[in-house]
Every structure is written in structure tokens, then in C-alpha cells.
Amino acid sequence: MSTSHFNKPSANLTQEGCRFVLQLLLGLLLGIGGLDKASAREQLFQPYKHGLGELRYIGGLPVVQLEGTPQEIGEQHAALLAKPAVAVLKYPKKLFVESGAEKVWPMAVGVSKRLLNQAPQRYRIELAAATQHADLDGDEVAVANTLLEMRRLGCSTLIVEPARSQTDGPLLGRNFDFPSLGLLEKFNLVMIVRPEGHHAFAAVGYPGLIGVLSGMNDAGLALATLDVYEAGNKSPQLELTGVPLLLVFRQILEECTTVDEAEALLKRTQATTWANLAVCDCERGAVFEITPTEVARRDASGAILPCTNHFREEGLAVNTQCWRYDSLQSAVHGAKLDIEDIHQHLHKANQGDLTLQTLIFEPRELVLHLAFGKPPSSALPLKRLDLGELLHEK
């Protein structure tokens, strides 16, 4: 399968030019207001089967299952999610246009395509298959799948290790915060991906996105990414020789089973930008503070580990003030925490219309508790999704 959709980056992509795009996007995302909302539709995802792939509703949640080779997974993605993917993939460019920054769109596309060319081949094949078979716009696909390199967002996570968990197993709670623009809140879904020769995983994301924002694999390794705005080690904000982080995080779920293995993969992979990654296996959790020049590890204190959008390790930390972090940190006091306790902590840390997904992973039980819909999602009841059978189903 040709990957020609992603092999034509712009010729003059300097670090300075890319930094300009990133700074502009940061200003846009911090200041953007709401857009006109599209007319509501009762059911945006239509149940359907294609090869080994299937889209169905489980407990009211849209769940798409994809399985096989990269080519097959890409074709299934296209067959099952083409229409919603077309709508969602309009989001990045719409952000530029509505913000008066349409002129820098070509540079953003060039940056994205250059970075995707450095991703593992299996992901490039999958993206090319999905793009071709769904007749998607390659530029929009490229920008959407390099979100961590092209945007700035909030987010909050709370890891609870077994010593403080009423379930006797670790828990990873997470708010995903991002401007919906009246669009993204309608297209949340769960993806179950069973790639040939690798660990199966579940991810909470969007049509057209093959990387991972939040996910857990069949070994109970769970993770969630959070953006970071400042780094004290003077590392570049964008490294053009790196691998897009959303795809690195997917690679962790496909190839790793423990926090330590995730750390090793991160350290041998060239990062593109600044990010926090909260990771939890069946025994413990950690936050990895990632820059293009180093990866630092932050472990739990008192079996509780909160994270928001700041580095906190020595040499990386700049400004650690964050009301959401302080709110989550209050979990260190009191009794052991159950699912509802974590849900309430996440709700206290919500950012209103920006909070689009609220979820809690149970790694030992392979269970996901999930809420999405009208933001803030943390105000909605959590729905339980048992992932064990879905991840191992044939």
C-alpha cells in the first residue's frame, strides 16, 4: 500500500517557522469562542459490519472494533466511520479559518506530513488505507493525527494505587479537555483495535484518529496524555525528527505490559514536543514528563498521583501553580477511594464546556467507566464497559 498521502511535506519547514505556527495555535486555542452548532442528529454512528470490523452500541456507547493487518484495519476504519470521519476531520481547518489564521494552514499541513513520515510503517499504511477507502482529505487526516504537536489543551488525571483503592486494584481517572467548537462532543466513541501480532487495546477517541489520547490494552496497561506549556530544560517545543506522540502512545499499548516497559519505549523514541503521560499497569502508576531531549519519571506519593499541564520534576518545572492539580491532590487525605470518589474528584477539576470525556480505567479488571456527551462530561453518569471480552474476542 502506498503511503503517498503523507509523503509531500512543504519544502521550507524550519524550526523557526514551525515554532511560529505552534505559538499562533496556542493563542487561538486559548482565545477561541464557540462556533455555530451543527444541527443535532439522534444517531451519528450507524451499526455496520465490514470484514472483521464492526460498529455497534454497547450500553448506549458507540463501540467500533477493528482487527487484522494495518491495511485491513485502515479499510475497516474507512468502511465503518467514513461519514463521521469526514465531519470530524473538518475540525482542524475550521479552527484555522474561524480564527482568521487560514494562511498558516499549509505550513501546519507540511509539519504534520513530515512528522507522519517518521512514524512506524504500519501506522502509515493504516492511515493511507483509511484515507483512500473513505476518500478523506489527506491534509486534514495528517493534521488530525498530529494533535499533540499542533495544539494546546488542558486535561487532568488521577492515579490511585492499590494501597488507596477500595477495589484493591489501581485506578486511572481522566478528564479530556479540549475546545469542542460545537462539534467534537458529538463524535466521541470507543475503539477496540486488535492489530495482528500486537496487544489489543481500547481507546477513547474520534473517527479518523488512529493515535491514542486515552487507552488501555489487554494486559491492563492504561495511559492518558496531557499537554504541557512550559519546560525548564530549554528543550525545543517542536523537534522535526521525532515521531508523533499520539502514535508513540498507541505503540506503547501495542508493545508494552508494564509502566517500566512504557518508560523504556519512551526513552528510546525521539519525542516531538512537550507532554505529560500518565501510565498505570496492574500494580502501580507513574507520570512521564516528556520533552524532545529527556524523559523524567514522577512516581506516586502516598499511593496517589495527580497530573495536569505542568512539569513538576526538578530541571523541567517552571510554573507549577494549577487549581485543578491542587483539587486532585486533596485525594491524598481521607479514606480509600472508589470509582465514584474519583469521579467526584474529576468533576471538581472540570473545565466546563472544555471537558468532553471523563473516564476511569480499572487495569486489573479490564473495565472502563466512561461519560461523554454534553459538557462538562464529568457531570454525567459513568457507563461501565467491560473490555476483557472485547479485547480478546475473535
Describe the structure.
The protein is an alpha+beta fold. The protein has helices at 15-31, 70-88, 91-98, 105-116, 121-133, 138-144, 147-150, 245-255, 259-267, 323-329, 339-348, 388-392; strands at 48-50, 53-58, 61-68, 156-160, 171-177, 189-195, 201-205, 214-217, 222-227, 275-280, 285-290, 295-299, 304-307, 355-362, 367-372, 383-386. The protein folds into two domains: 4-149, no CATH class; 152-392, 4-Layer Sandwich (Penicillin V Acylase, Chain A), CATH 3.60.60. Helix 2 packs across helix 5 and helix 4 crosses helix 6. The longest helix has 19 residues, at 70-88. A hairpin with a 2-residue loop joins strand 1 and strand 2 (53-58). The radius of gyration is 19 Å and the shape is globular. The strands form two sheets. It has a ten-stranded mixed β-sheet with strand order 1-2-3-6-7-8-9-10-11-12. Mean pLDDT is 89; it is low at 1-12 and 19-42.
